[in-house]
Amino acid sequence: MDPKHLLDGLVTYVCFLPILTFHEFAHAWVAWKCGDDTARLQGRVSLNPAVHMDLVGTVILPLVAVFLAASDSRLAGFIIGWGKPVPVDLGNLRHRRRDDTLVALAGPMMNVLLALALLAVLRAANLFQVEAMDEVLLRVAMLSLFLCFFNLLPIPPLDGSHALKNLIGMRDETYFRYSQFGFFLVILAIQIPLVNQFMVAATFGTLQVMAAILGFPRA
Description:
Elements: H1 3-33, H2 38-41, H3 55-70, H4 96-127, H5 134-151, H6 159-168, H7 172-179, H8 182-189, H9 193-213
Helix pairs in contact: 1-3, 1-4, 1-5, 4-5, 4-6, 5-9
């Protein structure tokens, strides 16, 4: 096991937790504002990471993946993590399909806003020649964008699949039937080089656009 890779993986995991928190908070907050207070009543409209963490999906599997990756095991590529799903009662939404789409896209949009905010802080720090947090801020921003595009994949139960479902008018019953196989479809999808190339290209492309907007000097 490579200690350097292990430390790097653990740092990435720690960076993942606040991103997950903001992502799930956004889902819960938008659902509440769209008329469904199910998540709010369960304490999910919160920036407390503990209320959004799933023991298996947020703790056990990601840490197992970190140790497998540090051991140079290919099995790490077959492990995905997740947060505790935000409960949404579609019957409570004021405009069922529109609001379901808004709730789904709230998480990825929060990832984009978080990345932009972190880059803005990084830009301000650079202007004042404060470089202590450069690597951490950049890493969290990149990870936030990567998770945004991962969640936009149109595979149940990822956020992008909700938007696609409502766009094409798929019945909820049909969607939930497909969702039973979603976990395996997601694992299969991330093994496809083209899918990974898309997420990486989208991440770095968006990062470059944000850097240009914020006035970062060209490399």
